[in-house]
Write a structure and sequence with these properties.
The chain is of the alpha/beta class and about 325 residues long. The chain folds into two domains: about 5-205, DHBP synthase (Alpha-Beta Complex); about 235-320, no CATH class. About 30% of the residues lie in helices and about 15% in strands. Strands 2-3-7-4-6-5-9-10 form an eight-stranded mixed sheet, with helices on both faces. Strands 11-14-12-13 form a four-stranded parallel sheet, with helices on one face. Strand 9 and strand 10 (about 190-195) form a beta hairpin. Helix 1 (about 10-25) packs across helix 5 (about 125-135). The longest helix is centred in the C-terminal third of the chain and has 16 residues, at about 280-295.
């Protein structure tokens, strides 16, 4: 029987030890500003296969490759002027760029596609670990495939358990939603594949051109594009607006508001942020879904945000969580 995962603080000694594990083909759960990831050597076929096995992830779902410095982009991908511009503006940060790949990245990491999704994370512990490892690291979310993404080390411990032996604890994720993914294989036709904290409007302004809305290409060139994903076991029902009257009628269900409704006292009423700030709501979303999933409710009713920006990313995650 495999050993239970151990959690490590980000001390120099621990980071050096974990980097050695990664160089030898092992896996380490890592903190990022978006969600926690399950990292392995992105240049190693066997390490990439271990990631898929630990998560129960289908081989058709490509991994994101993480680098520590802008100069490393050309090691794993073939950049163009548009990609270089976005990287200079938004890296390190929650932006993933899809580009043609180099021979350094094995087909096992990219679902046999000629492209690769690349990101430079902002979390200092993860970037330090990449540098110490000396290799780019593939790191999908550190959870069983399809379940709600983890935003704390404790989520990883409870979710993957014996599927991973080493967890680097970097505190709660500061953003709480996976990275924005932009497809720049054809720089003349940029497109968002997955919305995130960096918005379509920000990317369009940086590139000086229009950017297509999220789309589902025939070939899945990046993660997070399955119709059902980020899903708790408890059924999720989406609403344009929730009311306390509806919550009073459905006491066996959980009711998750964007902001705290005036006069809320019922034990089945919850909210993502007391003032309804959508970035704070995004940071809280996955943790709230996990808590409600464990609470024994029949259904989880969630208020869906309106508008552009981070609301688009929230709607994307909620639609996939609610899909059947």
């Amino acid at each position: 029987m495999a050993a239970t995962a151990r959690t490590y603080r980000g001390t120099p000694r621990n980071l050096a030890m974990l980097a050695g594990r990664l160089r030898r083909g092992g896996l380490v759960a890592v903190p990022t500003e978006t969600v926690y990831g399950l990292a392995g050597d992105a240049t190693s076929r066997s390490a990439c296969l271990r990631i898929f096995a630990a998560k129960g992830r289908p081989a058709s779902d490509p991994l994101i490759v993480h680098i520590a410095a802008l100069r490393d982009l050309a090691r794993v991908a073939v950049p163009n002027a548009a990609a270089s511009r976005l990287a200079r503006m938004f890296w390190p940060g929650p932006l993933t760029i899809v580009l043609p790949k180099t021979g350094l990245v094995p087909d096992e990491a990219t679902a046999n596609l000629p492209s690769v999704a690349v990101r430079m994370p902002a979390h200092p512990l993860f970037r330090r670990l990449i540098r110490l490892s000396g290799v780019p690291l593939a790191a999908p979310s550190a959870n069983a495939f399809g379940y709600v993404s983890p935003t704390t080390a404790a989520h990883v411990q409870r979710g993957l358990g014996r599927g991973v032996r080493h967890i680097l604890d970097g505190g709660p994720s500061s953003i709480g939603l996976e990275s924005t993914i932009v497809d720049l294989r054809d720089p003349g036709r940029p497109a968002i594949l997955r919305p995130g904290a960096i918005t379509r409007r920000e990317i369009a302004r940086a590139l000086g051109t229009s950017v297509a809305r999220p789309r589902r290409p025939a070939a899945r060139v990046a993660p997070g594009q399955m119709a059902r994903h980020y899903s708790p076991r408890t059924p999720v029902v989406l609403h344009g607006r929730l009311t306390l009257r509806a919550a009073a009628r459905g006491r066996g269900d959980a009711w998750l508001f964007l902001s705290r409704p005036p006069g809320a006292r019922a034990a089945n009423v919850f909210w993502l942020d007391s003032g309804g700030d959508l970035r704070r709501a995004a940071r809280r979303l996955f943790a709230a879904l996990r808590e409600l999933d464990d609470a024994g409710f029949r259904r989880i009713h969630v208020e869906r945000p309106a508008g552009p920006g981070i609301a688009e990313a929230l709607r994307d995650r909620l639609a996939r969580a609610a899909a059947r």
